[in-house]
Specification:
Blueprint (H helix, E strand, L loop, with lengths): L2 H11 L1 E3 L4 E10 L3 E7 L15 H15 L6 E7 L3 E8 L2 H9 L14 H6 L11 E7 L9 H10 L4 E7 L4 H11 L7 E3 H6 L1 H12 E7 L8 E5 L13 H14 L6 E5 L7 H21 L7 E5 L12 H7 L2 E5 L2
Parallel strand pairs: 3-4, 3-6, 6-7, 7-8, 11-12
Antiparallel strand pairs: 1-10, 2-9, 4-5, 10-13, 11-13
């Protein structure tokens, strides 16, 4: 296989061949923002049932914010929680931690009275003056059904908020069940090129979409340079292969990647260490056996693809070598992995 083709394959599959200047297989989560605030529509329409889902929109909102909170990695953020229609401060923007923020989320009441409870969205944006004091870069995450029936134009007010607060990005999670509400939210999202937009019901129904939203708003993954450029084994990290909890089974994505991995390995010489890893859930003994089973699953598949069995040395490391801190389901999922090292 030509080098150019190999590099294309590596980029497409997210397989990383570690060079001497980098620690093999290591990466780190880097925050995209310094602070965030959930800006929640607390109007009467949000206390009503979603027309398609038949569930209270505020109840769905609380569940969604809680799910996002559980996936935010501990990277030194400041976090707040505010409402509009009416404008209230549930949690001031301050040092964030999961437990205290979860308590703040529970203070949102999905059973507020809907009678004469209008939606002055524009006024709510006017009153979001706390945004000026948020550490930059800052993310304001609006959760709303987009209905606005009182006060100033919300799109104009959102534009003014962004123009007077450089370094602030306004993201939008839609709970809309009417075309007019969705159109308002779409118009607000288009005001800033950094906006991440999503539909709340889809995030609740699709964990992969939820993971992507958290990643797009809160952090990025970067390779961590090693302290010294010492020679080391070449490592192929199967970062796009993630095992389900308590499983060593390879899914369709994994097998597709391993077909290409086998082609790479057959162009190289030497023994190959196949190292299995787990997240921190479970006992040490259980995770050791599970990591060995994951390594064996990869070896067995590679042998079927024509890689000599005698070249493949399987090892299990259990939970002893995490790449991430295991503090969220997102990072635990990334720790459930297999790495291949071509031994010199």
């Amino acid at each position: 296989m030509k080098i150019s083709k190999l590099l294309t394959l590596v980029a497409a599959l997210m397989l990383v061949c570690a060079a001497p200047a980098f620690a093999a297989g290591q990466s780190t989560l880097v925050p995209k923002i310094a602070s965030f605030d959930f800006f929640v529509d607390y109007s009467g329409s949000m206390m009503m049932s979603h027309e398609k889902l038949g569930k209270n929109k505020m109840e769905l909102t609380k569940k969604l914010i809680s799910a996002i909170n559980a996936k935010i990695p501990a990277l030194g953020y400041e976090g707040g929680l505010h409402t509009f229609a009416p404008s209230t401060e549930i949690q001031p923007v301050a040092a964030w931690d999961k437990a205290s923020y979860e308590k703040a989320i529970k203070k949102l009441n999905e059973n507020e009275d809907t009678f004469a409870r209008m939606t002055p969205m524009g006024t709510g944006l006017q009153k979001a003056t706390y945004a000026k004091a948020m550490k930059r870069k800052a993310a304001m995450i609006m959760v709303s059904d987009g209905e606005s029936n009182l006060g100033s134009d919300p799109v104009a007010e959102a534009k003014l908020l962004l123009s007077t607060n450089p370094g602030l990005c306004l993201h939008v999670i839609s709970m809309a069940d009417k075309p007019a509400g969705q159109a308002t939210l779409d118009a607000i999202a288009k005001l800033n090129g950094c906006a991440v937009t999503a539909k709340g019901p889809e995030l609740l129904a699709n964990e992969a979409a939820l993971d992507k939203f958290v990643r797009d708003v809160f952090y990025e993954e970067k390779a961590a340079p090693a302290a010294a450029a010492a020679p080391m084994d070449e490592v192929i990290v199967l970062r796009s292969i993630q095992f389900a909890l308590n499983s060593a089974k390879l899914d369709a994505t994994a097998t597709s990647i391993l077909v290409e991995t086998a082609a790479i390995l057959k162009t190289k010489k030497g023994s190959v260490e196949v190292a299995g890893h787990t997240c921190s859930l479970g006992t040490d003994e259980y995770n050791q056996k599970l990591s060995e089973a994951r390594a064996k699953s990869v070896k067995d598949f590679l042998v079927k693809q024509g890689v000599e069995s005698s070249r493949l040395i399987t090892k299990g490391f259990g939970e002893s070598k995490p790449k991430y801190d295991n503090s969220t389901e997102e990072t635990r999922k990334l720790n459930r992995r297999v790495e291949l090292s071509i031994l010199k």
